[in-house]
Please model this.
Amino acid sequence: MDYRDAGVDIDRADDAKERIKGLARGTFNPSVLTQIGSFGGMFKPDFGRYRDPVLVASADGVGTKIRIACLVGRHDTVGYDLVAHCVDDILVQGATPLFFMDYVAFGRLDPARVEAVVRGVARACAEFGCPLLGGETAEMPGTYAPDDYDLAGFIVGVVDRERAITGEGIRPGDVLVGLPSAGLHTNGYSLARKALLEAGGLRVDTEVAELGTTVGDALLAPHRSYLAALEPLVERGLLRGLVHITGGGFPGNIPRVLPAGLGVRIRTSAWTVPPLFRLIEKLGAVPEAEMYRTFNMGIGMIAIVAPADLHAVEHSLERRGEASHVIGQVVEGEGVRLE
Model:
């Protein structure tokens, strides 16, 4: 008996790693000191433009969006989702990315599938100036079914301490500016699958008129990164708070950045909820409150700004082609009120 008999093929793993090396090299910058394949990745950051640099780190996954990728048979988008999600998570505190690392675990390692997943990771890393410093590719028969896999990412970024966004300066009367999402992003997929594919009887290749595409394509729409739109506002100190609307929706994420004793009022009529969310709500008979607790409902990021800075924030976003909606206000009293 050898390792292959136990379900782990080292030759396939070597093939996959060779494919990954070229993709990763395309994301490198002068701060990267090691090649893919080292036991650890070495990175020499340039903190010359920072007075008091603070590292910000985060880890996340893409959840059961992977099931949609498997059903559709397209695997080059979930890696992009992973990086964009992690970039947005540290952006909430004002940080820009330094480097990224990934972890992919397969039931049966297919080098072509590994390459497709990491191609998405590398594309996002190159777009956001975030080298793919290293990672891990594992074959785990018996833990995952042969065609299943899981994906996680780890990011490290930096922010000048004086520009870090902590939410401490948020005051009653501050304005909530919502930035549109590109779909479900990376959360709520278990409910979405149950509503659309089970209760609704749809398939991933079903064309839906109101979506303008297939169910699968709508669900695989990439997670947006708001780095390019918001970084200039971070540098100008115009943001008192940022909220990444991920798992937990509005009530689960907004309170995470608010000082004690403060809440928000959200005007749900301030933006048009995209058709995909309404389709999930209808086919799954999902209560509206549950929709806002599970999904981003078309708002992927919320900026909290002082009323006096609202015009400057809107003008900056408009100059960068970023749509925005004034969706609410900070108020006395804790909680998220949807009106």
